[in-house]
Specification:
By secondary structure, this protein is an alpha+beta fold. About 20% of the residues lie in helices and about 25% in strands. Bound molecules: FE2/S2 (inorganic) cluster.
Amino acid sequence: MPTVTFKNLKKKIIVPEGANLRKEAHKNGISMHSGPHRYLNCFGNGMCASCRVKVVSGGENLKRKTWWEKYVLPILNPVWFFARIGNEQTLTLACQSRVMGDCEIEATPEMNLHGEPFWS
Ligand code: FES
């Protein structure tokens, strides 16, 4: 059974192969949402982008609904559009990801809306 490591939370969970990442995290008491999104979210329908996670390693072991993340959601949800800039390969939606093997992720990654300061 695959192991999912939540690097920023220092937690590991063991999940059945093919399990939904968001559902398994919730079963183990790990929230994929921060702030008001803990209560205001789309409940795993892939619309709100509040369950986004950053894949640190093992991205090949996450079966992702990439066509939805790449083409549909950026049009429907500007938060997802801006959050993905510069993180296209590493950012994914927990509710749209199935765990096929070991992986390391960062839950509720910060959004850098302003980019890197030009003076640094
Ligand atoms: S819970 Fe809303 S996009 Fe995943």
